[in-house]
Every structure is written in structure tokens, then in C-alpha cells.
Amino acid sequence: MRSMKRLILLVVSFVVLSAGQGLAGIMAGAAQRDITPPVGFEIQHYFRQSVGVHDSLFARCLYLKDDEQNAVAIVSLDLIMGGFDACDYVREQILQKTGIKHSLIAFSHSHSSAALGAHNHTKVKNDTDSKWNNRTIETIVEVVKEAQQRAEPVKLRAGRSNAQVGFNRRLVNPKSGAVYMGVNRKGPVVPWVNVLVADSIKSSKPIAVLFEHAAHPVIVPHTSKLTSADFPGAAVERIQAELGKEVIALFGQGCAGNINGFPLRSTHEKADHAGHNLGDAVIKAIAGSKPVESKTLSIKQAHSEIPSRALPGREQWQKMAEANAGDAGRMRQLNRMKWLMDQGKQPPARRFDVYAVMLGNDWCLTTMPHEMFCQYELWIDKNAPFRHTMTFAFTNGYEGYIANDAALKMGANGGYEAASLPNWGGQVWTRHLGPPAVGCEQIIKDTLMSLWPQGKGLNASPNAGRFKLKYNKQGVHGSVREIKVTENGERVIFDITDEFGIGRGSINLGVGKWPAKVLVRMHLAGLEGFEVSVDDKKIAKQSLNIGRYDDEGSKLKGRYFKTSKDGDLEKRIAGYYEIEIPQEALVRGVKIINLKWVDFYR
Ligand SMILES: [Zn+2]
């Protein structure tokens, strides 16, 4: 009897203990491996053949997990870039071999390294049978696995310190008005370094430091034939010299599309020096860092497309073809344009996949693909509703430069990163045949805002991008479907027109709160079916107040908009159904309203 009691006691205390262990809070693990390509391989960019190694290239991973099994693998690579094909493949491998759904593959953009391709699709000359490329992919997966296995309870700290490795590289020629590359000491940069530190609860010592700064790693000269991680590699060395070799320091490249490291293409020593200074700034930021209190990791992703600038008109094209007849490279791009024009098509859009790793309101890492202009990082920092922000570009895919609207509006004068024809800037040479279209800035901001929780809101135009609408614009037989948003003060109206009559759509709150009155107006002849759900929870029909109004806004009796015969033409009374979405349904946190409707006519 007595032993039985003891057994029960033991069982009870075991249950309590394991429940305690289950609430460990944030867990973190980190690991790193060497991925330096063999001597004799090609260095990018500019292209040259390596004769040795100045400093090794690494793949590093910081793995974070919370009690709810939300987890992310943040991978930092000392490589110049990886396209969407490579990143998709690596992320799929990570998912298959570790079960981690969310991974961020971030490239440092070192111009003395190599590019990563998908499996069997090496981007490096002399990499026979993609051996180095495939091995590197395997190594990345191993690093992630090791970081995951090493995960232990940690406390996180976030901080920032002043730092500036480079300068804005866009200057305007006052005579021609055209942008050229140089050192623009007055131009915008991201003048800080952001850090996140994971301290082991067991040892009270740091296990990993994630740090981010925005500058092209181009201090190592293009004439050097030694492989190097450039200044980010030297910064890691400095951090490890201070904190210990066992601490994994991971660099993330910020929105450096228009910032060059300084002094440009000088010496390895100068790159080491710049890295040393950046490392010092990281140590300072760590010293002043503040605890991240939130224990909940939230990882979100959003996707959109960045449209490319429209092709030149036929007349302009003809002039350009005549002027460039002797230039095979230019003619190839011009012929691609013609091929699209003949089919009435426009160049493809750029994929834009963005991610946010958030810890409550304390901290957010935002990642974007491509070479984003620094203005985007500054905008995120100003507007994202978090105490600490950190931003990576060059992550999970790459398709060239993404300038801001101001640069894109300069047209042919926009310089290497943004110019359009008749100027042969860098982006005209891509498969997109030109830079992104003017207006892409709003698409980018809308996409980023869709990641954030309701927050402090935006200082910019209050209506811009508040609601993201999703619906099929074209119904059956080319009939038109449209949702219009009108917001003023405390009220928002979504006007829905649907020629075919059966449809669905969703309204996604991008930023801020739902207004006090949320009205849906259906411009249909009859409303046979109507369904509303908020965040996948259906609202009962009896709690929806559906009214019928004429175009003057006067309430009508009855159910349908009567039709009267006028000769053979059916005439319909102009008006709409109005449904108010109950405020109780739009309580804190609700992001999406889903609508389904069926018209009277079918
Ligand atoms: Zn670049």
C-alpha cells in the first residue's frame, strides 16, 4: 500500500516536471561549416579564376523554436547570390530532411565568392558535374540539422549601434541629369547594425549572434584572385575574437542595392579593416541590447509579383534596332522585345516572396529577395510595429535590382540599377528586359504590411494598401468582376460588381484596425446566396443585416431589384444590397473577411 502511494507520488511529480520542461520558452541552436570552393574555381563577380583563399566562406544557421513548435532556420551564406530555383530546392531539402517548414536562405553578396545553383545546375565555371554546388547544398542541410539538434533554452536580446561600411553609390550628373556610380556621401544609407543575441540559459553565455548591415561587399578588389567573404567575414572574426570561437556569428545583408562598401575595390586589408569596425559596432550593440520578452515565434510569408516596365513603343524600338544593328548582344534583347510585342505581351514580372519572423511586438526580421534599395529598409524601420527591426534582402531568391519609384521614374536617366531604354542599364539585360515598373513601390509596401500585426499604423497616406483584395477579376465568358474600396474616417465600403453573378473574394486588412463601420455593397439583381466568414469563422446569417437600397441610398422594400420590359430589353432598377459586417465579428486580430455570393440570375 505504502509503495503504491509512493509510486503515485512519483508519477505525479514526473508529470509536473515534464510540463515545466515543456514550457522552455524560446529554444535556439547554431552551427557552421566551411563551403569554400576549391582553388582554381571561378570567383564572382567580376568573373576571375581563383589562385588561393584569403579567408574561407561559410554556411551558418541559427535555428529558433518556441513552445508551440513554431520554428525557423535562418541560414547565412558567404556567397554572392542564389536564384529562386536554387533557394526553392534548398528549402525543399531542408523541409524533407529536418521537417523545418520555414527557412530563410540569405546571401551575403560577397563579390569575391561564388553563386549557388539548384541541384546539378552549378553557376560556377570549373565546377565539373556540379560537384561543389551539390556538396554545398548538402552542407547547408547538414548545418541546419546540426543547429536544430543543438537547440537549447535561450534568452534573446536585440540591439542596434551606429555603423557605416559604405556610401550611397548613385550620383546625378548635373548636366545630363543621368545617374552615374560614385561615392554619394549625402545619399541615403542604412547607418546602423542590428543584432540579435541568443544566450544559453544553462551557461548564461551567448551561443549565437545574428547581425545585419546594408552594404555591397565590394571592398576586396576585382583584381584579387583570392576567394574572400569580404568585410562580413572579417566582422565575424572580430565578433568571435571578442566572444569566443564557439559563438556562431551570422551576417545578413540588408537592402544594399544602392550602397557600396568603402573604399570600393581597394585591398583585402581595407576589407578586413571595415569588417573589424563593423564587428566593433556589433559588440557595442550587444552591450546595449535589451531583452526580447516575447516567447511566441510567429513566422509569416507573403507573395506578390513586381511588374516589369512596359516595352518601348514600336517607333522607338525601330530607332533602337537601327542604331544597334551591329551589336549582337543588344539585338538579342531587342529581338526578345519584338517577339513579345508581336504577341501583344509584356515582359515577365519578378517574383516577390517576403517573410517575417516576429517575436511579439519586440522584434521582427523581415526578408526580401533581390537587391532592394536601402529606402525600403528605412521605410520598414520607420513603419513596422516592432521595437526592434532587422531586414535582409538577397534572401530566398534573386532577380536583380529593385529600385524605388523615384529612381524608376527617371526612365533612361535612372542609372545602372533602374535605367530603362534607350539607356542600356543593367536591368535591360535581364529576362525582364528592363527595370520594374513605376508603381512597384506600393506593391512592395503593401506586401510587407500584410505580414505585420495591427500596429502603430502608417504615417504615409492612410488609405494606401490598407486592404488587400483577392478575387478573380474575370468571371465566366469574360464577364467583369470588381471590388472597389471607399474609406472615409470611421467607415469603409466595399462595392462589389459581378456581371456573371456567382463569385467569391477576400478582403485582407493590411495595417491598422477595421473602421467602426464595415459595409459590403453587392451590385446584383438579386441576392440568392450570401456568406461571410472572418478568419475562416462563418458569421450566422441571422446576425447579418441585409438591406436593399436604390442608387440614391433610399431603402427599398422587397427582395429583388425588379426588372421591367422595355421592348426586348430588360431594365433593372439601379441599386444594391448592403450588408454590415457586425463589429463583434471584427474583434482584435481578425485579418480576413471572406465573401461568397450568388446572384438571382444563373
Ligand atoms: Zn549587387
Distance from N terminus to C terminus (CA atoms, Å) equals 76 Å
Q: What structural class do you assign from the helix and strand content?
A: alpha+beta
Q: What does the oligomeric state look like here? A: single chain
Judging from the principal axes of the Cα atoms, what is the shape?
globular
User: What is the number of domains?
Assistant: 2
Detail the poorly predicted runs. Answer: 9-22, 455-464, 565-569
Report the count of strand segments.
34
**Overall pLDDT:** 90
Q: Radius of gyration over alpha carbons?
A: 28 Å
Biggest sheet overview: 9 strands, mixed
Q: Tally the helices: what do you get? A: 11
Give the cofactors and ligands.
zinc ion
Report on this model:
It is a single chain. The chain is of the alpha+beta class. The chain folds into two domains: 22-302 and 352-392, no CATH class; 467-599, no CATH class. It contains eleven helices and 34 strands. Strands 1, 5, 6, 7, 8, 11, 12, 14 and 16 form a nine-stranded mixed sheet that branches. A five-stranded antiparallel sheet has the order 23-26-34-28-29, with no helix packed on it. A hairpin with a 5-residue loop joins β5 and β6. α2 packs across α3, α4 packs across α5 and α6 packs antiparallel against α7. The protein is globular. The structure holds zinc ion. Zinc ion is lined by residues 109, 216, 371.
